[in-house]
Description:
Helix 2 runs antiparallel to helix 8 and helix 3 (about 85-95) runs parallel beside helix 5. The mean pLDDT is about 90. The protein is an alpha/beta fold. The protein has a single domain, classed as Rossmann fold. The protein has 8 helices and 8 strands, in the order βαβαβαβααβαβββαα. Strand 7 and strand 8 form a beta hairpin. It has an 8-stranded mixed sheet, with helices on both faces. The protein is about 35% helix and about 15% strand.
Amino acid sequence: MRLGLLGGTFDPIHLGHLRTAEEVREALDLDKVYLIPAAVPPHKTREPITAFAHRYTMVRLGISTSPHLDALDLEGKRPGPSYSIETLRGCQAMFGPLAEIFFILGMDAFLEIYTWKAYLELFDWAHFVVIGREGSELEKPAAFLRSLGIAGVSENGRGFFTSDSGKSIHFLQTTRMDISASRIRLLCREGKSLRFLIPEPVREYIERTGLYRNHGHA
C-alpha cells in the first residue's frame, strides 16, 4: 500500500485541504490519503482551537464524497502534544511494515521542521511530500536538506531527492486556493456566507452547532 498522511488543525477543514490531498494522491499514485486532525498542535499552543471531536467530525463530513480520502483519530486518542514522530510510528504499526507512508506538509511548515521533535527520525519513517506555498519558496532544496543533517541527500532523474534511509523527498505544486481556516472563522463570526469555501456538509454542521459564531471556537 502507498498511503498519504496529511495532518493539520483543520479548524475547519476547507476545499484547499481536500484539493491538496486529491492532487497529491493522483501525482504519486497513492492508494489512499488519510487526513489526521491534531489534538494538541505543538506549534499552536497559544492559540485556542476547537474541540477535537468537532474538528474530527468535520473532517469526516468533508471527505464523505471521496472513495480515496479517509480520516484517522489517532492523535485524538493520544494524550499530550501531537508530535508527528509518534504519529508516523503509530501509523506504521497500524498499517504494517509493507505500507509505504508519504508524509504531506506545506513548505512553510517544512522550512521550520528543524524545530520539530526528533525531526531527523521523520525521514527514516516516511517519504516526504512538500507542497509549495505562496511566500515560502526554497531556491536550493538540496542545500537545505543537507543543512538539516539528512544523510545521503541526492537528486534523482525526476527532480526528487533520496536519502540513506531509502525514503524520498518530493517537492510538488498543487492548485493554490486563497482559503484559510482563520478567514473562514472570521467570516462566520461576522455572519457572512461560507458557501464554496468548505464542503457543504461541513457548512451545515457549523451552522447547526453554532461553531465559530461567538469567539471562533467551542
